[in-house]
Amino acid sequence: MCKEYRRKYNAVNRFDPTRTLTIRDKYSQDFDRRYKKLIKSVRGTIFDNHALQIRLNQAVFIPGSSPDMMATSFGQWLLEESDEIVGGIERDAQGNVIAAEGWQDKYIIAIILSAMRQSDADLRKAGVRIPIKSEMDYLNDPMVRNLINEFRAINYNAIAGVNLDMSSQAAEALRDAIADGYRRGLTIAEIEQNAFDAVEDRINKIGRTRSEIIARTETIESHSETKLDNYARNGVLSVGAIIEMEFVTAGDDRVCFQCIALEGRTFSIFEARGIIPVHPRCRCTWIIIKIARPAALSRTAA
């Protein structure tokens, strides 16, 4: 079973062994649309509302303030704006996430359901009796509900961390741009443009880059750990069965040396925990290669 299954698996799922590329792409694209909306909001605040034209007394933040004070106010505004537009989250006074809009849930649920279906199919191929289940069967499964809640929290907190870092660095970049403009005697229009460029750079390099990593890496972790949880549960249900998995890569020229070194190696469920993702944007997964009952249990059953 093992060699033939492995050969067929690699042939069918080459380049996308988790079979989640569409979900990851859509999740990443959704993030990207939201960051573009955030940039549009920043543009309107700086250029249309003239947040930095202090002398015109049209400042959205603090008229007559220093670059440091303006940067602090802007950073707080940007954090709130990014939490609302990108994260769909609310924080308490200590900055902890206390509520979420939940737009990410459809991707988290899709990843976990995909992992459950794949691991159930793997178990059936290995001889474990697993009934065919509907989507509602999975969603009513307490283990699946717990996994959804666990990975929701991981995703929301990851996004909250990205927004905090991005807003902080954007505020510093804005402060430096304003101070530099004052030193060089630039016009307000020039200062506004430089400040916007500095903030947009931080949003792109921190917000958009790291959110894309969340969409492509946290999902792979959720997928991997869900499969391992399902294997483990069914190993226990199968009278203490010993389950061994093989590490499978995407098999293309993008596979890194770290993953190539793990390709084809076998692990127990305990040993496999936390290995995938090996690195950001990892695409690897597990497949079952052996299910065996311990010798002592086999003798007892006989």
Write the layout of secondary structure elements.
Elements: H1 2-12, H2 21-48, H3 67-87, E1 89-91, E2 97-100, H4 105-125, H5 135-139, H6 142-184, H7 188-237, E3 242-248, H8 257-262, E4 266-268, H9 269-272, E5 285-292, H10 295-301
Helix pairs in contact: 2-3, 2-7, 3-6, 4-6, 4-7, 6-7
Summary of the model, kept short:
With 302 residues, this protein is mainly alpha-helical. The protein has ten helices and five strands.
How would you describe the overall organization of this protein?
With 302 residues, the chain is mostly helical. It has one domain (19-239). The chain contains ten helices and five strands; from the N terminus they run αααββααααβαβαβα. A three-stranded antiparallel sheet has the order 4-3-5, with helices on both faces. A two-stranded antiparallel ribbon has the order 1-2. α2 (21-48) runs antiparallel to α3 and α2 packs antiparallel against α7. The model is unreliable at 54-64 and 295-302 (pLDDT under 50).
